[in-house]
Design brief:
By secondary structure, the chain is mainly beta. The protein has two domains: about 50 residues, no CATH class; about 90 residues, Jelly Rolls (Sandwich). It is built from one helix and twelve strands. The strands form four sheets. The chain has a four-stranded antiparallel sheet with strand order 5-12-7-10, with no helix packed on it. A four-stranded antiparallel sheet has the order 6-11-8-9, with no helix packed on it. The N and C termini lie far apart (about 70 Å).
Amino acid sequence: MKKQWAQHIGDDQLVYGMPKHMVGVSGGNTQKNRPVPGDPPYRQPSESNGKTTYWTVQPKAKACDKCQAMAGKKFMEKPEPPHPNCKCDIRQHEHIPQKRYLSEFIEGYEGNAVQQFFGLGLVKVRIKHITGALASGVEVYSNLDGIRSSHTLTKDVSFTFSTLTDTPVLWSIQIVQKGADNTVVQYWIEYEE
């Protein structure tokens, strides 16, 4: 009696010369929009209501050096495992940008302040003249978007700095107050992280 040959198609086997999870994806197959049994469902990245997603790698206890190097980093797209037998967890997280504020006073002739922080692509700096010389002014330096300056004679001045990025970058903002020794200004820095 002749035995019937039955082929088991596992997750790592080929179907029509392609990996099982890619059957129906190529342009020649008419069933390209149908899901393939056994595949995880495709989820569109969430970017509604100001939410964005990012990915992190959680290495196992005895992970290799490549996996350990990926720990603690945020990825905007799902990273590929660094080697075929990687057993590290790759997790998806939602990030909701939150506004942060920094505020201090600067006093004295050429008094200055430096603030460094990780933020997204837009930073607003507001400076208010509190007391002192009538001809006082300020200069605001940004490591990513140049210099702004203005007189603060009994008024508020605002500066906006921007850079093209959708991930947090290191900002360095230096504010230099130009006035007499008795001049005091207050500043507020607003940014999202």
